[in-house]
Each structure stands twice: as C-alpha cells, then as structure tokens.
Amino acid sequence: MTTAEPTAIKQPRRTALRQTTLMESVYQEILARLQSGQIGPDDRVLDYEIAKEFECTRMPVRQALLRLVNEGYLVGTTRGFVTPVLTGEDVREIFDVRRLLEPSAAAGAAAVLTDEQMAAMSAAYRKCRRGFERKDIALMTEANVEFRGIWLEGVLNSRLKGTILRFADHARQVRHGTMTKPGTLELIVDGMQALLKGFMERDPVQVRAATLAFIDDAEQQYFLTVDDAT
Description:
Blueprint: H1 14-36, H2 47-54, H3 58-70, E1 75-77, E2 80-82, H4 88-109, H5 115-134, H6 137-152, H7 158-175, H8 184-200, H9 204-229
C-alpha cells in the first residue's frame, strides 16, 4: 500500500506583507497631512511624488490614495488627487451626521476612560491653550486631533468610531478656512475646556451638551465665514 505524500502547507509571501505595510504607512502619513491642514484645497497630491518621497514604487502609493478617495478625503482627477469641493448642502449634511453620532458616543466614553486617558486629554487641552495664546493654528489643530483621538478610545464599536473619525476629519478640512476668523480660536479652546470638564467629572449629560455645542459652534463659524465672503 502506497503512503500518500503529506500536503505541503504554503507559507504567506513576505513580499505581500511588506507591500501592505508600506501602503498603510503611506496612508497614515497622507491622512495626517490632511488632518493637520498641510494638504489644502489648492494642493495636488501626485502619486509619483509620494513614491519618490517614500523611495518605493507607485503601486502602494496608489492603493493608499484610492483608500483615501473611498473614505471621502480625496478626489481623483486627471492631474492627481485633490481634496473634495463641498457645497453648502454637503457641509450641512456632514454636521448633521456629527450631531447624530458624536454627542452620544462621547457621553458613553466618559464612563470608561481610564485615569491615564483623562490625563492625556488634559495634556492635549494644555497644548491647545498654548496654541491659542500663540495664535498657532497648527498646534491647536494637532491638539484637537489628539484630544478627540483619546476620547474615541472609549468608543467600543469600531465601525462607529471609524465613522465619527472620518466625518470629524471632513469637517476639519471644511473648517480650516474659518480658523483666522475673529473669535474662532477662542470658541475652539473654550469648547475643549468644557468637554474636558465633563469628561473629568465623568458626567455624560455635560459631555453630551458640550459636544453638541462644539459641533454647533463649528458649523455656525463656517457659514458666517461663507456669508462674509459673498
């Protein structure tokens, strides 16, 4: 009787693993630039320039950029990738979605965040305050991203967390042009202070109200800026 040869188990290809890791690195870097405002409405993102920067082929760069297109951060054109041009109705819909999701999610996170996470949010608020005193928009934006990222760690539903993250980022891109409007920076730092107070007291009602007020103020400032420009 002939003994059957054992079936060989194929090992995963390491080249595919490296390619995926590289694509993720490019994605995270371009996303961070979009979040911080380093890539603005007048900028074009070109795959060959990013590939040269990362010293890689264009394939993982294209994959990363197409992922950002699918998530609404970028739009593909015949001359590279750009941030989307949003109508007033688009902007209203973005803020409507944020109002539906963020206040409840933040209120729920207030009960589960650790003392270490609370301390990190306090540090992010202090960074925002320093940015406000220096009129440093980039530093305030960085602090805002950090602050939101920390409380989002308390949102256990990963799909909800991802949706909140994307729509908040889209709103930040829209809102970037309002940052030089008088009173906007003060609204941001005061809004973050109110949020921090609610989180530190673990008061879901206060957190919900502060989150809603923060969103409403951001929307109002955007449309006031648009009205002033017309």
